[in-house]
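Hi C.,

You asked whether I'd gotten around to modeling the 260-residue construct. I have! Everything is below, sequence then structure, no commentary in between.
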Amino acid sequence: MFNFKLERPLAVFDIESTGVNPDSDRIVEISVIKVFPDGEEISNTRRVNPEMPIPPQSTAIHGISDADVADAPKFRDIAPKLNNFLSDCDLAGYNISGFDVPLLINEFRRVGIDFSMEGRRVIDAYGIYCKLYPRTLSGAYKFFCRKELENAHSAMADTRATLEVLASQLEKHTELSRDMDELAKFCDMTDPDAIDRTRRFKWQGDIAVVGFGKNAGRALKDVAVNDPGFLRWIIRSDFPAEVKKIAENALVGIFPERKA
């Protein structure tokens, strides 16, 4: 089925989690297909109790709720066998370099297991996708319009190419709305959980949390009370004005409120 040249097993895996921060979020489900050089496959899926609430917005994506994992093993319970299962493997997945691998390493670290990446090869299908179909205007022009973009980075050439790409996208994908409001919503890449544009602060449910650094995932109110120096550091440092304003307000007891 697969035309792989394997020298060792390849573990293709995917993780569902409580959120998108590999430093603070936790695994709620992990699936692995271990492909051996002779073509044999072993697959396994385990639900995991993350020992923290699963935000509703995460449940809306993967369909796993707190109740679904209430009786599932904790990561520490499955870690030794999982580590052994993956010990001789290269790794593969979709966008695993930026999320799944760091999250897995952090989960193992929390239970005292050093999940070493030394000597492992990582095959990321997302990376292959981006290399084959570059996310540039020239790449989009070639894909949708079947033409090479001449004079790329000339303002008028790029503008004309963009118009042609948009027209070709609408022609190719009839499911796309022609209504400008609906089309704007569809292509909006803004993180709905971001409080500021740089995601230094974000929503976890209705709770404002820190989105980076040593306090990643920690409630802003808790940081303001127990680690105010962190917020003062933000105010003194080179952060956007809106980020500094959130930190300043938090220090005097004013916190963001999520609009319904």
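If it helps when you're writing up: The longest strand covers residues 27-35.

Thanks,
B.
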